[in-house]
Structure prediction request, 567 residues.
Amino acid sequence: MDANAVSRAVALGGRSWRLGAMQGTAPGARATGRDGPKRVDSHSLGMHKVLSVDATLAPRDPQAPGQFGHPVAVPDGKQEEAKSRWKEGNFNVYLSDLIPIDRAIMDTRPAGCSEQRVHDDLPTTTIIMCFVDEVWSALLRSVHSVLSRSPPHLIEEVILVDDFSTKEYLKEKLDKYMSRFPKVKILHLKERHGLIRARLAGAEVAKGTVLTFLDSHVECNVGWLEPLLERVRLSRAKVACPVIEVISDKDMSYMTVDSFQRGVFTWPMNFGWRQIPQEVVEKNQMKETDIIRCPVMAGGLFAIDKKYFFELGTYDPGLDVWGGENMELSFKVWMCGGEIEIVPCSRVGHIFRNDNPYSFPKDRVRTVERNLARVAEVWLDEYKELFYGHAYHLVLKQLDVGDLTQQIQLRKKLQCRSFRWYLENVYPDLEAPLVKASGLLVNAASAGCMAVENTTLAFEECDVNNKHQEFNYTWLRLIQHGELCLAPSGGAGALGLRRCRAGSHSPTWLHRSLAASRTELTDHIVSEHLQQPACLEVDPSHKALRLNACDSANPYQKWHFGNYYAD
Ligand code: LR7
Ligand code: MN
Prediction:
């Protein structure tokens, strides 16, 4: 995720014109916070220009390191110290401590954003930030950025959820520090909840109309909040995400990112960013300030109507610690009538790290896999085979995903659409063939085809119009005709058909890319079911199918399907 993020980052170093514009103005001149929300002009009743509240515009110390989001170098002689403190947060903690907790950052919004109008009666929001063992200066900078750059009347409260941190400074010292800000409330959880249930603990007590979730190592940029609330005000089923900019883990610089990016996923449900192709941007005459429909959200930063969030059943509370909850909420929102949007005029920086700096109660990989499998089981319908096909070790592991009845019931109750609908309407560019290959299964040597006669296996002259010769090669590695699957039967290389069933005891077959990874058996169909690898073969004299020891040169063991959809 980190590499992905950094490749999106556009260094601001060369763009000093923006900074110049900021510095050249008399202090406070751009802080139009004085234009109260009540100001109404005759053209657009009940609206005002986005407030550019920014208490850091005239920074206390303009010369301080990291000011205006500039990169910082570790001073000579401090390299060792900086290195040794890295693991406290898996970013440059030394520099984070060095730069002001209320530093200024550049206004990275696209042109036009500061002129946009929003309604005077925007809903209020509760900011929810959960954290475990967060670095002191990063946490404070996050809170200060919210307080410094949000219109106060829109912030109902800021709830900090301490997810059973082990660091002493996150207890009384934090309470004491925050006591000077009446809107900041701290919830110290009595056991480790994981970020999913920790966020829910915050949501339970929130008083604002809208919930705005943030990570605990962010910097909200000027004008970030109103554009998000404006979307939610427009429709309570809109979930609004800011553009996530990059705070460098190495030099703490604040970098903007390329425009026109969507949050997407690839199999097996890996989140990533994808640029909207230039021709699509041109064809639709998209502007940089246009709202972007987003198939999945990154997860950490979004605003959602509180009542709507609870109607959706919040997150699946069965998700543990970290990961997959962004997929779950994204599918749930889209499939159950809502929308996920990126709002280009709202920008928040986030420190991208290569690894989680806190411990997982259980194994990290297993936790994420289990979370994703829960999501797949509840939301993906028949497409869950693509998930398992791309994470095949999960099939073999017979992973225990826990009880899903509540989640499945919820989906029914909300009358959500199918995953197929989601793919067709929200994320049509995702490649999602339901099977790996299909059609006639032709033998290379004899040009004959596998067939089903009544319910028994046969080998016949190929006939493209014969439905009984059609087979699928599935993501779960079955060779399937309707309910029937090709399977070794009895001893001595005999083969037959039996009712298909998914799972680790199914008769699975390797073919093409799968087989090629083992030997030179690319065109072969190798049984995984037996102790010894064996290959599907035509007995040349009897024109019958059987299993035999694999022989890479034997054309009677080479097969191809009519159509291939994936490697
Ligand atoms: O057990 C935990 N308890 C917590 O309170 C684990 C984490 N947390 C806190 C943590 O301190 C942090 O503030 O939860 C927040 C998110 O954890 P990170 O920062 O370790 O996560 P991340 O930024 O690496 O990962 C992204 O994916 C996560 C998947 O579960 C969450 O959705 C994060 O919020 C999310 N972050 C973002 O969307 C920011 C942009 C990243 C991208 C792309
Ligand atoms: Mn994060």
